[in-house]
């Protein structure tokens, strides 16, 4: 089936949709994005994703776009038109089309807004069943990782390094401390049961799933420490997992070839995954 996508106010067949070669997203990586999960044909946590989109736009002085009600409508309309049951909606907002220049164009330049759907097994994900093998890689990204920009080349390189090493993904390390995954937030569970994840700063993306999982973990009485941890501490942990919109909570079963716990997805990760999926199914819209 040909997908229907959204470009600047129009719903188009994917092979009819175009963006200018002068678009600053294409030329300068001058664009921000969001990914919302879709479960049972409904969208998960759009308020969180839309709020972060606004924060990214503000940080980059990007011109206004649709309001949240309009954005939700476009998301829902794409899900409906594509009869999507499970997967994601990707949104990208660039600063628009202008002559190539490092300086931003004037605020009269309209932004480019593109959305599309992608089918994906979210709940019944094979990786979540078996658990992910990760390797560590140096974190060579820029210093504003709290802004969700499309500058994803280094995370792609880290992911390819993981593949080349026979692993699934990479956890990034800076100054001897884990920042986050290539496209996820990183958590460990210590041998005495404390849940540890790096504190919020410009060093990491402020994951929407991270926030929800921390809230759920608090609700069930887990002790939480928001602090940085080393790869060595992670290798000694009872469990580890990563969070993102479409991987939800995915257990990590080895780090740099060292198995965690009994080498299978851990109980805390499994419980938080279940709680998060249940809550998402209840609240999706
Ligand atoms: N960290 C990075 C670098 C990411 O790219 C992502 C998601 O794409 C996340 C964390 C998780 O964010 P969220 O839970 O909002 O999907």
TrEMBL record:
Entry EC number(s): 2.6.1.42, 4.1.3.38
Catalyzed reaction equations: L-valine + 2-oxoglutarate = 3-methyl-2-oxobutanoate + L-glutamate; L-isoleucine + 2-oxoglutarate = (S)-3-methyl-2-oxopentanoate + L-glutamate; 4-amino-4-deoxychorismate = 4-aminobenzoate + pyruvate + H(+); L-leucine + 2-oxoglutarate = 4-methyl-2-oxopentanoate + L-glutamate
UniProt GO BP: amino acid biosynthetic process; folic acid biosynthetic process
Top-level taxon: Bacteria
Record has Transferase as a keyword: yes
Cofactors required: pyridoxal 5'-phosphate
Gene Ontology MF term list: 4-amino-4-deoxychorismate lyase activity; branched-chain-amino-acid transaminase activity
Keyword vocabulary terms for this entry: Aminotransferase, Folate biosynthesis, Pyridoxal phosphate, Transferase
Signal sequence range: none
Record flagged with keyword Transferase: yes
Segments forming a coiled coil: none
Any one Pfam family match given in the protein's UniProt record, by short name: Aminotran_4
Gene Ontology cellular component list: cytosol
Pathway this chain belongs to: Cofactor biosynthesis; tetrahydrofolate biosynthesis; 4-aminobenzoate from chorismate: step 2/2; Amino-acid biosynthesis; L-leucine biosynthesis; L-leucine from 3-methyl-2-oxobutanoate: step 4/4; Amino-acid biosynthesis; L-isoleucine biosynthesis; L-isoleucine from 2-oxobutanoate: step 4/4; Amino-acid biosynthesis; L-valine biosynthesis; L-valine from pyruvate: step 4/4
Job of this protein: Involved in the biosynthesis of p-aminobenzoate (PABA), a precursor of tetrahydrofolate. Converts 4-amino-4-deoxychorismate into 4-aminobenzoate (PABA) and pyruvate.
Protein family according to the UniProt entry: Belongs to the class-IV pyridoxal-phosphate-dependent aminotransferase family.
Name of this chain's protein: Aminodeoxychorismate lyase
